[in-house]
Amino acid sequence: MLKYGTKILIVARDKRIQMLLKSNLEMEGCMVDQAYDGKSSLLKVRHLDYSLVVLDAAIPYQNGITLCSKIKKDNEVPVIVVTDNDHQMLESFQAGADDCVLKPFSSTELVLRIRAIIKRYTAWRSDGLIIRDRELIKLSHLIIERSAHRILVDHIPVHFSLKEYELLLYMANNPNVVLTKEHLFHVVWKHEQPRNYRTIDTHIKRIRDKLSKASTVSRNMIQTIWGIGYILRDPV
Questions:
Q1: What is the predicted pLDDT for the residue at 38?
Q2: Strands of 150-153's sheet, edge to edge?
Protein backbone atom coordinates (compact mmCIF):
# COMPACT_ATOMS: atom_id res chain seq x y z
CA MET A 1 0.00 0.00 0.00
CA LEU A 2 1.03 3.58 -0.62
CA LYS A 3 1.52 5.90 2.33
CA TYR A 4 -1.80 7.45 3.37
CA GLY A 5 -2.16 10.96 1.96
CA THR A 6 0.33 10.46 -0.90
CA LYS A 7 -0.35 13.28 -3.39
CA ILE A 8 -0.60 12.28 -7.04
CA LEU A 9 -1.45 14.44 -10.06
CA ILE A 10 -3.27 12.85 -13.02
CA VAL A 11 -2.97 14.74 -16.32
CA ALA A 12 -5.30 13.35 -19.00
CA ARG A 13 -7.94 14.61 -21.42
CA ASP A 14 -9.87 11.33 -21.27
CA LYS A 15 -12.26 11.57 -18.32
CA ARG A 16 -12.59 7.79 -18.21
CA ILE A 17 -8.86 7.47 -17.55
CA GLN A 18 -9.12 10.23 -14.97
CA MET A 19 -11.95 8.58 -13.07
CA LEU A 20 -10.50 5.05 -13.28
CA LEU A 21 -7.13 6.11 -11.91
CA LYS A 22 -8.64 8.45 -9.34
CA SER A 23 -10.87 5.68 -8.00
CA ASN A 24 -8.02 3.13 -7.76
CA LEU A 25 -5.56 5.56 -6.20
CA GLU A 26 -8.06 6.84 -3.64
CA MET A 27 -8.63 3.22 -2.62
CA GLU A 28 -4.87 3.20 -1.88
CA GLY A 29 -5.35 6.20 0.42
CA CYS A 30 -3.91 8.74 -2.03
CA MET A 31 -4.90 12.38 -2.42
CA VAL A 32 -5.57 12.74 -6.15
CA ASP A 33 -5.44 16.02 -8.05
CA GLN A 34 -6.45 16.36 -11.69
CA ALA A 35 -5.50 18.45 -14.72
CA TYR A 36 -6.63 18.26 -18.33
CA ASP A 37 -3.99 20.26 -20.21
CA GLY A 38 -0.33 21.23 -20.11
CA LYS A 39 -0.67 24.78 -18.86
CA SER A 40 -2.71 23.99 -15.76
CA SER A 41 -0.65 20.92 -14.91
CA LEU A 42 2.63 22.89 -15.05
CA LEU A 43 1.21 25.43 -12.64
CA LYS A 44 0.12 22.70 -10.26
CA VAL A 45 3.50 20.92 -10.36
CA ARG A 46 5.37 24.18 -9.74
CA HIS A 47 3.28 25.21 -6.74
CA LEU A 48 2.18 21.95 -5.14
CA ASP A 49 4.25 19.09 -3.73
CA TYR A 50 3.31 15.89 -5.55
CA SER A 51 4.80 12.46 -4.98
CA LEU A 52 4.19 11.46 -8.60
CA VAL A 53 2.57 12.61 -11.86
CA VAL A 54 0.65 10.29 -14.20
CA LEU A 55 0.66 11.93 -17.63
CA ASP A 56 -1.32 10.92 -20.72
CA ALA A 57 0.78 11.60 -23.84
CA ALA A 58 -2.40 12.58 -25.72
CA ILE A 59 -3.30 15.77 -23.86
CA PRO A 60 -4.50 18.86 -25.78
CA TYR A 61 -2.75 22.17 -26.51
CA GLN A 62 0.67 20.83 -25.56
CA ASN A 63 2.17 17.49 -26.47
CA GLY A 64 2.26 15.29 -23.36
CA ILE A 65 5.82 14.24 -24.11
CA THR A 66 6.92 17.88 -24.34
CA LEU A 67 5.15 18.49 -21.04
CA CYS A 68 7.01 15.57 -19.48
CA SER A 69 10.31 17.15 -20.55
CA LYS A 70 9.32 20.49 -19.01
CA ILE A 71 8.26 18.87 -15.74
CA LYS A 72 11.47 16.84 -15.43
CA LYS A 73 13.65 19.84 -16.31
CA ASP A 74 12.66 21.85 -13.24
CA ASN A 75 11.28 19.29 -10.77
CA GLU A 76 12.37 16.11 -9.01
CA VAL A 77 8.88 14.61 -9.14
CA PRO A 78 8.68 11.19 -10.87
CA VAL A 79 6.52 10.94 -14.01
CA ILE A 80 4.73 7.95 -15.53
CA VAL A 81 3.57 8.52 -19.12
CA VAL A 82 0.59 6.66 -20.60
CA THR A 83 1.31 6.16 -24.31
CA ASP A 84 -0.53 4.96 -27.43
CA ASN A 85 2.38 3.17 -29.12
CA ASP A 86 6.03 2.12 -28.84
CA HIS A 87 7.24 5.26 -30.63
CA GLN A 88 5.58 7.48 -28.01
CA MET A 89 7.08 5.28 -25.32
CA LEU A 90 10.60 5.79 -26.68
CA GLU A 91 10.05 9.56 -26.97
CA SER A 92 8.72 9.64 -23.40
CA PHE A 93 11.84 7.98 -22.02
CA GLN A 94 13.95 10.41 -24.04
CA ALA A 95 11.97 13.23 -22.40
CA GLY A 96 12.90 11.93 -18.96
CA ALA A 97 9.92 9.77 -18.01
CA ASP A 98 10.59 7.38 -15.12
CA ASP A 99 8.25 4.76 -16.55
CA CYS A 100 5.68 4.26 -19.32
CA VAL A 101 2.58 2.13 -19.85
CA LEU A 102 0.89 1.32 -23.15
CA LYS A 103 -2.84 1.68 -23.73
CA PRO A 104 -4.95 -0.25 -23.07
CA PHE A 105 -3.45 -0.72 -19.63
CA SER A 106 -4.35 -2.52 -16.45
CA SER A 107 -5.12 -0.11 -13.61
CA THR A 108 -3.76 -2.72 -11.19
CA GLU A 109 -0.44 -2.84 -13.06
CA LEU A 110 -0.22 0.95 -13.13
CA VAL A 111 -0.84 1.20 -9.38
CA LEU A 112 1.93 -1.38 -8.79
CA ARG A 113 4.30 0.68 -10.93
CA ILE A 114 3.35 3.82 -9.04
CA ARG A 115 4.11 2.05 -5.75
CA ALA A 116 7.51 0.91 -7.03
CA ILE A 117 8.57 4.34 -8.30
CA ILE A 118 7.44 6.21 -5.19
CA LYS A 119 9.26 3.63 -3.05
CA ARG A 120 12.49 4.24 -4.99
CA TYR A 121 12.16 8.02 -4.77
CA THR A 122 11.37 7.84 -1.05
CA ALA A 123 14.44 5.65 -0.49
CA TRP A 124 16.62 8.09 -2.43
CA ARG A 125 15.33 11.14 -0.55
CA SER A 126 16.00 9.49 2.81
CA ASP A 127 19.46 8.35 1.71
CA GLY A 128 18.21 4.78 1.74
CA LEU A 129 19.39 3.70 -1.69
CA ILE A 130 20.51 0.08 -1.53
CA ILE A 131 24.24 -0.07 -0.84
CA ARG A 132 25.95 -3.07 -2.40
CA ASP A 133 29.59 -2.51 -1.47
CA ARG A 134 30.67 1.07 -0.92
CA GLU A 135 29.19 4.38 0.15
CA LEU A 136 31.69 6.21 -2.07
CA ILE A 137 32.52 4.89 -5.54
CA LYS A 138 35.69 6.33 -7.06
CA LEU A 139 36.70 5.56 -10.63
CA SER A 140 39.26 7.26 -12.86
CA HIS A 141 36.88 9.99 -14.08
CA LEU A 142 33.85 9.37 -11.91
CA ILE A 143 32.95 9.79 -8.23
CA ILE A 144 29.54 8.78 -6.87
CA GLU A 145 28.55 9.86 -3.36
CA ARG A 146 25.53 7.73 -2.57
CA SER A 147 24.24 9.43 0.56
CA ALA A 148 24.36 12.84 -1.16
CA HIS A 149 22.97 11.40 -4.41
CA ARG A 150 25.80 13.26 -6.16
CA ILE A 151 27.90 12.38 -9.20
CA LEU A 152 31.15 14.16 -10.03
CA VAL A 153 32.63 13.79 -13.50
CA ASP A 154 36.29 14.85 -13.41
CA HIS A 155 35.34 16.77 -10.23
CA ILE A 156 32.44 18.56 -11.96
CA PRO A 157 28.97 17.88 -10.46
CA VAL A 158 26.54 16.57 -13.09
CA HIS A 159 22.77 16.19 -12.63
CA PHE A 160 21.14 12.92 -13.68
CA SER A 161 17.51 11.86 -13.50
CA LEU A 162 16.76 9.16 -10.94
CA LYS A 163 16.71 6.39 -13.54
CA GLU A 164 19.93 7.62 -15.16
CA TYR A 165 21.50 7.77 -11.71
CA GLU A 166 20.45 4.21 -10.84
CA LEU A 167 21.73 2.89 -14.17
CA LEU A 168 25.09 4.66 -13.92
CA LEU A 169 25.40 3.69 -10.25
CA TYR A 170 24.91 0.01 -11.03
CA MET A 171 27.41 0.08 -13.89
CA ALA A 172 29.97 2.01 -11.81
CA ASN A 173 29.58 -0.51 -9.02
CA ASN A 174 30.34 -3.28 -11.54
CA PRO A 175 33.14 -1.78 -13.67
CA ASN A 176 34.86 -3.75 -16.42
CA VAL A 177 32.00 -6.25 -16.50
CA VAL A 178 29.86 -6.81 -19.61
CA LEU A 179 26.22 -6.22 -18.61
CA THR A 180 23.46 -7.45 -20.89
CA LYS A 181 20.50 -5.23 -21.68
CA GLU A 182 18.20 -7.86 -20.20
CA HIS A 183 20.14 -7.81 -16.92
CA LEU A 184 20.25 -4.01 -16.75
CA PHE A 185 16.53 -3.77 -17.43
CA HIS A 186 15.80 -6.31 -14.71
CA VAL A 187 17.94 -4.73 -11.98
CA VAL A 188 17.16 -1.07 -12.79
CA TRP A 189 13.60 -1.15 -14.11
CA LYS A 190 12.56 -4.22 -12.09
CA HIS A 191 10.71 -5.74 -15.06
CA GLU A 192 11.38 -9.38 -15.90
CA GLN A 193 9.75 -9.16 -19.35
CA PRO A 194 10.70 -5.83 -20.96
CA ARG A 195 8.69 -4.72 -23.99
CA ASN A 196 11.56 -2.86 -25.60
CA TYR A 197 15.31 -2.80 -24.89
CA ARG A 198 15.58 0.57 -26.68
CA THR A 199 14.83 2.04 -23.26
CA ILE A 200 18.34 1.03 -22.19
CA ASP A 201 19.88 2.51 -25.34
CA THR A 202 18.05 5.80 -24.82
CA HIS A 203 19.19 6.18 -21.22
CA ILE A 204 22.78 5.22 -22.07
CA LYS A 205 22.81 7.87 -24.81
CA ARG A 206 21.58 10.53 -22.38
CA ILE A 207 24.16 9.48 -19.78
CA ARG A 208 26.94 9.65 -22.39
CA ASP A 209 25.80 13.09 -23.52
CA LYS A 210 25.90 14.40 -19.96
CA LEU A 211 29.29 12.80 -19.32
CA SER A 212 30.76 14.29 -22.48
CA LYS A 213 29.60 17.81 -21.57
CA ALA A 214 31.65 17.57 -18.39
CA SER A 215 34.58 15.63 -19.83
CA THR A 216 35.16 14.31 -23.36
CA VAL A 217 37.27 11.48 -21.93
CA SER A 218 34.56 10.23 -19.60
CA ARG A 219 32.07 9.73 -22.46
CA ASN A 220 34.15 6.78 -23.67
CA MET A 221 33.91 5.00 -20.32
CA ILE A 222 30.61 3.38 -21.32
CA GLN A 223 31.20 1.17 -24.35
CA THR A 224 28.72 -0.79 -26.45
CA ILE A 225 29.16 -4.54 -26.77
CA TRP A 226 27.18 -5.09 -29.96
CA GLY A 227 24.40 -7.61 -29.72
CA ILE A 228 24.88 -8.01 -25.96
CA GLY A 229 24.83 -4.83 -23.89
CA TYR A 230 27.27 -2.38 -22.32
CA ILE A 231 30.41 -2.20 -20.21
CA LEU A 232 31.74 0.65 -18.09
CA ARG A 233 35.51 0.50 -18.45
CA ASP A 234 37.75 1.98 -15.80
CA PRO A 235 41.45 1.96 -16.80
CA VAL A 236 42.63 2.52 -13.22
A1: 84
A2: 136-138, 142-145, 150-153, 156-157
DSSP 8-state code for residue 129: P
CATH code, 136-232: 1.10.10.10
List of residues 6+ apart from 15 with CB closer than 8 A: none
- Give dist(CA 22, CA 31) in Å, integer: 9
User: What residue ranges do the domains of the chain occupy?
Assistant: 7-125, 136-232
Angle between helices 15-27 and 107-125 (to 10 degrees): 60
SS3 230: strand
Residue 193: partners with Cβ closer than 8 Å, 6 or more residues away: none
Let me know if 37 is exposed, middle or buried by CB neighbors in 10 A (0-12, 13-18, 19+): middle
Q: Which CATH superfamily is domain 7-125 in?
A: Response regulator (3.40.50.2300)
Element (H, E) at 90: helix 86-94
Question: What amino acid occupies position 106?
Answer: S
- As a dihedral over the C-alpha atoms of residue 86, residue 88, residue 93, residue 99, rounded to 10 degrees, the angle is -70
Element (H, E) at 183: helix 181-184
Element (H, E) at 53: strand 52-56
pTM of the model: 0.57
157-210 residue pLDDT tens = 898 888 899 999 989 988 888 888 888 887 787 755 555 678 889 999 999 999
